[in-house]
Amino acid sequence: MKDKVIVNSALKDFSNFVKIPEARKQAINQALTTPLKKNYAVNSNAAFLHPDVQFLKVREVIEVSRDEKCYILAPDSAHGTGKLAFFRPGQYLSLTLKIDKAIITRPFTICSSPYDSCDKDFYMIRVKKSMYSFATSYIYNNWQKGTEVVASAPLGDFFHQTLRDYDFIVGITDNDGIPAFLAMAKAIEEKSLAAHLTLFYSCRKKADAVFMDELLTIKNNSRFFDVVFVFSDEKVDKYERGFVTKQLIEKYAPPEKYSVFINGSQQLFNLISNQVTGLGLERKAIRLNISGQVKDSNSIPDFPAEFTGKVFECRVKREGKVIATIPCPSDETILVALERAGIHALSHCRSGSCGFCRAKIIRGNVFIPENTDSRRLADIKNGIIHPCSSYATSDLTIVIN
């Protein structure tokens, strides 16, 4: 069967066209009758790089501070994961946890390097126990060597992309966001990430700067990585005092064009947003990533004061049926309210960016912080929200997956 038709005239063109069905039948009849392969290399590679689930096991637990631990996670071959999926430094794992009757997910940034997952068969995550998160407290108190873990493939787009970002990066972080930059620093040291990173690490005191020794070691080993510690509550020789400001960034920023990567708590965003805006950078050069969900709406500057402390009623529908009516406090996200009620709701990033937890508002109003609203225009028009970054400001009826 010819793979193209040569046009000589309108009549011959039509004649050739009407012969195509017969030629197709002949090609089908002459084809081999052996079954096609059930799997191809490209499908195997895709399944390895982007598995639906990874079964892991805690290989080691490392004490970091009085309320922080690092967990070394290795593949659990007994449950079907023989090799870890590759990741880009800055990505996270979404872990599925069963706590009492609730099934929840929580994102944890991988703070090891890609080399560790490829050649040493482990991911490392940092877990910080928090009064705002029963999930981190559960992990901190219960996980030990041998604990079985269910995780997603590496997720998120907070990583350096050559086609999108400049080769020089100015990173700004605090304790909440440091794991992503630790992974980037390790990758730069190992030369698996071709970028220059100048990192501003903002803490209250020197004692609060986790991974400080490791970051300084990487700085000494690589001319492509520098770290600037900024302490707000104490003066420390050789380090900066105060907060990360426009003037401080310009003091250490490279003369070349650079991208700004900001990863950390809501409080960091509140402090740094105006300072970064003053740098006059292109929009594409500024990358934002809140590390996990906003814990309390009271920490959001533009949250309407009249709704503070209110508790609303939320009717929850799934597959056309009302499955529950739950209390929905205005100071926590709708996703947290669902989880507290024992409703299994899909989620990954918990910061409004991935869209995995999409829900539809049938009735009522919500507040969504501007810097976490990554919905498409069509979603906004059709009442779609991300429950992980939405707060009730009235009684609600929503539809979840």
Give an account of the 3D structure.
The structure is a single chain. The protein has eleven helices and 19 strands. The mean pLDDT is 90. It is of the alpha/beta class. Strand 11, helix 9 and strand 12 form a beta-alpha-beta unit. The two termini are 48 Å apart. The chain folds into four domains: 33 residues, no CATH class; 105 residues, Elongation Factor Tu (Ef-tu), domain 3 (Beta Barrel); 123 residues, Nucleotide-binding domain of ferredoxin-NADP reductase (FNR) module (Rossmann fold); 96 residues, Roll (Ubiquitin-like (UB roll)).
What's the short story on this structure?
The protein has four domains: 1-33, no CATH class; 47-151, Elongation Factor Tu (Ef-tu), domain 3 (Beta Barrel), CATH 2.40.30.10; 168-290, Rossmann fold (3-Layer(aba) Sandwich); 305-400, Roll (Ubiquitin-like (UB roll)), CATH 3.10.20.30. Helices cover 24% and strands 28% of the residues. The chain has helices at residues 10-18, 20-29, 41-49, 114-119, 134-142, 178-189, 212-221, 246-252, 266-277, 334-340, 377-381, and strands at residues 54-65, 68-75, 92-99, 102-109, 123-128, 148-151, 168-173, 196-203, 225-231, 240-241, 258-264, 286-290, 311-318, 321-329, 359-363, 366-367, 384-385, 391-392, 396-400.
